[in-house]
Amino acid sequence: MPEVRVDPLSGLKTIIAAARADRPNSGLSVTPGEPLDPASDPFLPGHEDETMPTLYTDADPWTVRAFDNRYPALTAAADAPERDANPDLFTVQPATGAHEVIVNAPEPVASLSELSVEQVVRAVDGWRERMRAHVDRPYRHLIVNEGRQAGSSIPHTHAQLMALDFVPAAVARERERFGAYAVRTMGGNLLADLLQEEVRRRERVVAIDSEAVLLTKFASSSPYHLMLVPRRSRTHFEHEGPTGAALLADGLRRLKARFGASPPLNLWIRTAPGGAEHFCWRIEIQPRLGQPSGFEIGTGVHICALAPEQAAAELRDL
């Protein structure tokens, strides 16, 4: 039977309706993408002049490289827009910050799942280094979009870092829930306690290694929605300590094995925003196996057509 679940971290609701996976054209399949054309790949070594100037490399020759986005959503010195005559209704502010591209590997591949574990570790270390470069910003949001359906315009595997001069409402809401939980439990950490209970129950755990735990979300927004959580609670991803990169590589390979090809997906890192006294970082992976409908867009309530427990069991067995 369908049921409404509440995400413990955000408070947002999801409808788990597993029977909908049986409808025609349900979307729970993946078509392999075309191989990349090296001649037209601007992120290959030797093509550095096709991008903005290099900000960071991990080695010489590089295996991870960062540079400013040529089409940024945020700029370091944006002009202040003209103040509206009715600012209570029409608030405008400059979109200041930073918007970088981080090439995850020199190999011309479209997915992190096609890289060696060692290269994924190097890529994640590069993400951390670039996040550290913007610690003065209130929030740093790192994303990986894989596949055109997930918003990627260049197929070569890469991440984007957006360093914001404000804390997004969704992140601020989580900050408040972490703080309220700490008050209610006399210092408890919301995600650490959630992880402990998930490991005790095991029904949504996919894999565990020495650094992190990979599990499906209790209130998954879509089928195979994964969350990677450090075994020892830490507020900021960009601080020293384990990154969970090897388990991240493992989870992406499990998704690839499940569908016979890497699915289009969105990956993001949630790190502690400015003003957060209680928090724990995590990485989320959300395969894009269908498009949101008018219900989801209009209400903000997701419908997940596969029980997270079933998704975890399938991925655990691979």
Please tally the β strands and state the result: 13
Averaging pLDDT over every residue, what do you get?
A: 95
- The number of helical elements comes to 6
Strand order of the largest sheet: 3-4-5-7-6-11-12-10-9-8
CATH H-tier superfamily? HIT-like
The dominant shape is: globular
The arrangement of helices and strands along the chain is EEEEEHEEHHEEEHEEHEH
Helix % is: 10-25%
Find the structural class using helix and strand composition.
alpha+beta
Low-pLDDT stretches:
none
Number of domains: 1
- Major sheet, described briefly? 10 strands, antiparallel
CATH architecture grouping: 2-Layer Sandwich
Distance between the termini: 27 Å
Question: Which fold does the CATH topology refer to?
Answer: HIT family, subunit A
User: What is the CATH domain class?
Assistant: Alpha Beta
Strand coverage percent: 15-25%
C-alpha-based Rg, rounded: 20 Å
Keywords: Carbohydrate metabolism, Nucleotidyltransferase, Transferase
Protein name: DUF4921 family protein
Organism: Solirubrobacter deserti
InterPro entries: ADP-glucose_phosphorylase, GalP_UDPtransf1, GalP_Utransf_N, HIT-like_sf
